[in-house]
Specification:
Elements lengths: L1 H18 L13 H13 L16 H15 L4 H12 L14 H34 L1
Helix pairs in contact: 2-3
InterPro entries: C-type_cytochrome_biogenesis, CcmH/CycL/Ccl2/NrfF_N, CcmH/CycL/NrfF/Ccl2_sf
Keywords: Cytochrome c-type biogenesis, Heme, Iron, Membrane, Metal-binding, Signal, Transmembrane, Transmembrane helix
Pfam families: CcmH
Length: about 140
């Protein structure tokens, strides 16, 4: 059992080390600190389409680097972060945003986690009730 745990930890170590790596922004940082701050905030709110669960600000994927470059170019050209976000959502879909807008098409993105949580709560409460009934039968029996 210990050898299995060790093997899992060793397999996960490179991925954990890579996630902690600082992204390289130095090559194309914007000269205006306010615009750079806007770009970085937007990069934290956009999902990497390669890594999926990671923002593009921390991803080492080539596509994430391209997305960071496009964000900086558009903000440098005068677009607002909301306009750039809308452009990215139009290009990659609602899924690319960590906080998609609430509307008919994105309702499943908001409802599925809530339904799963409610269903899990219902299952746990049912299991607890069943366990209490079984212990009462044993006491009376």
């Amino acid at each position: 059992m210990r050898s299995i745990m060790l093997a899992v930890l060793l397999a996960a170590a490179p991925a954990a080390a890579q996630q902690g790596a600082a992204p390289d922004y130095a090559e194309v940082s914007l000269s205006d600190p306010a615009r750079e701050a806007q770009a970085l905030a937007l990069m934290d709110a956009i999902r990497c389409v390669v890594c999926q669960g990671q923002p593009i600000s921390g991803s080492n994927a080539d596509l994430a680097g391209d997305m960071r470059r496009m964000i900086r170019e558009r903000i440098a050209a005068g677009e607002s972060p909301d306009q750039v976000r809308a452009w990215l959502v139009g290009k990659y879909g609602d899924w690319v945003s960590f906080r998609p807008e609430v509307r008919g098409q994105t309702a499943p993105l908001w409802l599925v986690p809530l339904l799963a949580l409610a269903g899990g709560g219902w299952l746990v409460s049912r299991r607890l009730r069943t366990g209490r009934r079984g212990s009462r039968k044993q006491e009376t029996g």
